[in-house]
Amino acid sequence: MLSSWRDRIEGDVRLLTSTVRYRLLVLMLLPVLLTLASLVFITIYWNVSYTGSQLFMKVRADLGVAQGVILEQLNDQEQVISQVQSAWRLKSLLGAKDSHGVAINQLLERNRELLGLDFLRLISLPQASVDPRLQKLIPAEHERARSGIQVLNKPELADLGPVLARQAQMPIQSTPMAADSVQGMESRGMVMRTLLKVKDTDGTVVGYLDGGVLLNRNRDMVDNIRDLLYAPGTLPNGAVGTVTLFLDNVRISTNVPGGNSGEQRAIGSLVSDQVKMKVLERGQVWIDRAFVFHDWYISAYAPLYDIDGRRIGMLYTGFTEAPFIHNYLLNILELGFILMVVLFLSGLAVYKGATGLLKPLDRIHTVVQAMQEGKERRIGNLGLDPDNELSQLARQFDRMLDLLQQRNREIKAAAEQLEFKVDERTRSLKQRTKELKENLKLLEETRAQMVTNEKLVALGELTAGIAHEINNPTAVILGNMELMKFELGDRADDVEEEIELVLQQVQRIKAIIQSLLQYARPGDFDAPLERQQINPIVEEMRVLVRHSIEKQAIDVALDLKADARVVVNSQQLLQVLINLVINASHAMEDRGQIRVSSDNWLDDEGKVKGVTLAVADTGVGIEPELLSRIFDPFFTTRKTGTGLGLALSYGIIRRFGGHIDVDSVLGEGTTFTIRLPSDVLLKEDALSVNLRGLEG
Questions:
Q1: E strands, 364-500, where?
Q2: φ and ψ of 145, to 5 deg
Q3: How many Cβ atoms are within 10 Å of 253's Cβ, its own excluded?
Q4: CB neighbours (10 Å) of residue 638?
Q5: Contact between residue 112 and residue 168 where contact means Cβ atoms under 8 Å apart
Q6: What domains are defined for the chain?
Q7: For the chain, give me the number of helices (H) and strands (E)?
Q8: pLDDT for the residue 329
Q9: Cβ–Cβ < 8 Å for 635, 644
Q10: Which of 148, 492, 520, 602 has its CA 20 to 30 A from that of 510?
Q11: DSSP at 151
Q12: Strand 553-560 to 591-602 pairing
């Protein structure tokens, strides 16, 4: 049973993954897919547009209700204070001939506590006329009272009552999305204030009742507005509705949760900079989402104006955004699940209905795949009506496979014959290519040898002439200079410096002639070679060159790791190393480092092949176009050089059976690398060997 189900599932998977069948299924499912996708997008768009607009409409309405509540609060305050003004007890005390100030104050204090006011006092007409704050609230002749909102500083609050000054004071706390405040404490207070005319029994205005409420830390007003706007059931579960009064951009009365230590509400926190700019600075209403203290809210902000028409703060209403987003996402997930179920059921129904059409296609596909794998298969009878299009296609396809099989056998035979010929020609071509490369290599070496031999022949002829023409005059000069010193006697001291200079230059001429002869006729200067270690020769070189470079701040550092023995002449190798180090010092300024290193030379299999010597400097480097000429005789870039040092060094290394390479970067330095093999041909006694110039 399990095997049959597995075979059936595998067959269904093959049906779905076949290109033609996949397209047929897509064409069958396309109307359903388009309908469901359109339904999803329409639903999401409707939810976003309608739900968002409804939320903003609600918060705008909440803001309007909150503004109305504040106006109603001012009217109620005016009504309760008018009850005090019309009380018989107050009028009797005012009509008495004797002063009853203490009794009036006690009466006002009892009424203040009874009416829930923060301050209530009697102001005389002169006091009201000189107080700039009260002048704005003095009622006109036809008015009984005037109310409004004012912002009072700390001394003005202290005049109304010391408790009010302490209640208004609050620390300003830093708030996300808001710039840090330059002041650390808010000591001003926002008050809802009413000034009511007080008349005696004769109807004469004798003063004013000054009463009101301090809004700083006042919970009653914001909580009453919140309970009115966001009663239980008006918001989703988990949503929090809040109301806030701002003095400038500071929350002075709020039910937004969270705050400083000791505060359960966000008293003293700041509004975000975006809201501050639009509402406080531009005087516009904000209806949008906003960051409120520590969370995102659907928010409405409106500016608050004092009795003089100046913007002094803001009124805010809003509710948390997260529960609405959660509900929205939950609705989308529910809708998506329902649509997926519908899509699955629709696809299953379409698939079941199309199986009768797809199975013959699967049979054809299976045969084609088997043929591609080299198996001999035929479609045969599909179990359909002979006149069915698929049956006719199967018969034609089988006949085509028979023809194809016959053609494949013919092509295979021809291919085998062609492959044999190609292999034969390829082997011949590879052999000829190998021979050609060897001939080209031999040609290059022969050509280089011929060029070198031509140079040697030309140089030999030139050297012989120079030796003949210069050696005799040089000997005459030396003899005459000695005779001159003898003839002059004591007077020779006056020109001794000039005589020594002439002798030095003559000796230099002889040295140049000697170098020419050594390069042109190396066979005359052969020295015995022996197998030996390289490191002692390098250390001796450093001792010998120390005097030549002591005027420069140049350090010759050694890194000697080679332990293999090579066949060399120690004096000639020492001459090469000294020449390279002196050249390196000339290429450097007054300071730097010349690094001489040695290491074993290994072949591709890791076996010791010889020794590698490297001389690296930190000098000016060699220009790329000059690198190919530095080993040519008489080529030099120094005014005092002869151009034979590197040429002689090259010849010596070649006589050792090795080779020398150069790598240079302008401005960074030059590295000469010498590779000396260990398997140089020795004489039968294995003690010495003569290698002839550049001939080997």
A1: none
A2: -155, 165
A3: 22
A4: 11
A5: no
A6: 2-42+332-358 (no CATH), 50-326 (no CATH), 525-677 (3.30.565.10)
A7: 17, 18
A8: 83
A9: no
A10: 492
A11: E
A12: parallel
CA distance 117 to 218: 11
Closest CA to 263 of 151, 336, 172: 172
Percent of the chain with pLDDT over 90: 23
Question: What's the DSSP call for residue 270?
Answer: B
Give me the pLDDT at residue 696, please.
35
Residue 548 near residue 582 (C-beta atoms within 8 A): yes
Please tell me the distance from the alpha carbon of residue 229 to that of residue 571, in angstroms, as a whole number.
Answer: 107
**Secondary structure (3-state) at 198:** strand
**Angle at 247 (CA atoms; ends 245, 249), nearest 5 degrees:** 95
pLDDT at 299: 95
Q: What is the pLDDT of residues 59-85, one digit of tens each?
A: 999 999 999 999 999 999 999 888 887
Residue 39 belongs to what H/E stretch? helix 19-46
Helix (H) or strand (E) holding 676: strand 669-677
Tell me the C-alpha to C-alpha distance, in Å, between residue 57 and each of 53, 60, 223: 6, 5, 22
To the nearest 10°, the Cα dihedral for 579, 582, 583, 585?
Answer: 160
Measured in degrees and rounded to the nearest 5, phi and psi for residue 609 equal -105, -20
Q: From residue 406, give the alpha-carbon distance in Å to each of 366, 394, 409, 415, 461.
A: 21, 19, 5, 14, 81
Q: What is the pLDDT of residues 485-544, one digit of tens each?
A: 778 877 777 788 888 888 877 777 776 676 666 655 555 555 678 888 889 998 888 888
Look at residue 286 and give its three-state secondary structure: strand
Q: What is the pLDDT of residue 460?
A: 61
Tokens of 477: 């000069």
How far is Cα 641 from Cα 638, in angstroms, rounded to an integer? 5
Burial of 206 (0-12, 13-18, 19+ CB in 10 A): middle
Closest of 566, 641, 655 to residue 611, by C-alpha: 566
Which pLDDT score is estimated for 613? 93
Is the pTM value of this prediction over 0.85? no
Query: Looking at residue 254, what is its pLDDT?
Result: 93
pLDDT beneath 50, residues of the chain: 97, 261, 682-696
CA gyration radius for the chain? Answer: 55
Distance of CA 290 to the CA centre of its chain: 31
